[in-house]
Amino acid sequence: MTVPDFQSLMRPLLDTLADGEDHTITAIRAELAERFALSQGDIEELIPSGRVTTFQNRVGWAATYLYRTKLIDRPKRAVYRISDRGRGVHKENPERVDLKVLSQFGELEQFRQTKAPSRDGTANLTTPGGEEQTPEERIDTAYRELHSALAAELLDRVLDQSPAFFEHVVLEVLHAMGYGGSRDDAAQRLGQSGDEGVDGVIREDRLGLDLIYVQAKRWKNVVGRPEIQKFFGALHGQRATKGVFITTSFFSKEAADYADGVTPRVILVDGKELAQLMIEHAVGVSVSREYVLRRIDLDYFVIEEDVTAHGAALPVSPSTPIAIPPR
Predict the structure, then answer these.
(1) What is the pLDDT of residue 197?
(2) Which residue from 231, 275, 295, 300 puts its CA 20 to 30 A from 198's CA?
(3) Which regions of the chain does DSSP assign to beta strands (E)?
């Protein structure tokens, strides 16, 4: 038997977790392999890149979608248990759970970040490989999904670490963006204040012409207006002109509105934007593999007229000199 597609694995994965206990991803894969009677060859088959097995990849994506739509919880890394929402979906869909079923939850579209809703108001949930898309569109869709999954996983990993590690991440991101002067200097300056609502100070440029005061909050709950007001007061106390408030969670509307209207200027960076900055500036991530898409170079095939004495037409490469016979 061949390895089922990742959507076909969603309902069986919920079956595995239906007992309400914690299950490691290794145990989940073992149970699914037995359920589908997969041979050792099926289990060891690699995806085209050769970096991971097809089975491991598809089970991972099934778990990712169920987790991001809150059908399963992850009490710790690589360990899953069914949620109350998952129990309801499991009971209401005895035959199959797939992306169509998951589309009832807003978290799916938020996670996938695909195209805007269609004219009839329904979300476009075309999966990579759908016949509705051209090959390039399928690549773009898959890339966006992979990027979104990476950002979500990256933020989860940051939340698993200590507050001190989070401050280190903030330092790395700001330094990668060009702030802080030298790396050593930036490291010495961040975390020196530690009071009055300020976690650190970092240079805006290598010359140190201006300073940026930083507040870093490794939170899961919303950051409200009182926290921003406290930070704003600290900036006044330091006679600062610029501040950055970075969190792993998100800001309330009241907090964002307040930050927009105060001086000194306060920039808010929530967890979603932080993850994007980490990816953009290669903090905590590395290149897995690269694909190069090539197009026809139309200039290469431009026909130059009268390049010979006899009026013959030759294909010309712009980088190749052509000797024209004397007339």
Answers:
(1) 58
(2) 275
(3) 23-24, 72-76, 79-82, 200-203, 211-217, 242-247, 265-269, 303-304, 314-315
